[in-house]
Amino acid sequence: MIRRMAEDLGVHHEALRNGIRQAEADAGERDELLTPEEENELAQLPREAVAGLLLRSRPRCHGC
Fold first, then answer.
1. 8 Å CB contact between 15 and 6
2. For tag attachment on the chain, is the N or C end more exposed, with fewer CB atoms within 10 Å?
3. CA–CA gap between residue 21 and residue 3 (Å, rounded)
4. How many CA atoms does the CB half-sphere of 49 hold within 13 Å?
5. Spatial separation of the C-alpha atoms in residues 21 and 4, rounded to whole Å
6. Which residues does 63 contact at the CB level (< 8 Å), separation at least 6?
7. Of 25-29, 31-35, 54-58, 60-64, where does mean pLDDT reach its minimum?
8. Quick check: 2 and 17 in contact, CB under 8 A?
9. Cα Rg, the chain, nearest whole Å
């Protein structure tokens, strides 16, 4: 369905898929993607703080 819509719009299907995913994140419907506001807030943090946040939010691998 996305491929057909992308073809009708004259865009690559992955570009359309990514746009849909970002629109869902912006609407608060997807937790795994950042909204533009969250991206801006993250960009203001020092790199060390960002690395620490990412490491703490990573799922732990049990039995690795």
1. yes
2. C
3. 15
4. 6
5. 17
6. none
7. 60-64
8. yes
9. 16
Q: Which amino acid is at 45?
A: L
Comparing C-alpha atoms, which of 24, 52, 50, 27 is closest to residue 39?
A: 50
**Distance between CA 56 and CA 5 in Å, rounded?**
39
- pLDDT tens-digit map of 38-52: 888 888 877 777 777
Euclidean distance between the first and the last CA atom of the chain, given in angstroms as a whole number: 38
Domain boundaries of the chain, sorted by first residue = 2-57
6: which 2 tokens?
Answer: 């992308």
Least Cα distance to 50 among 61, 34, 28, 62 occurs for 34
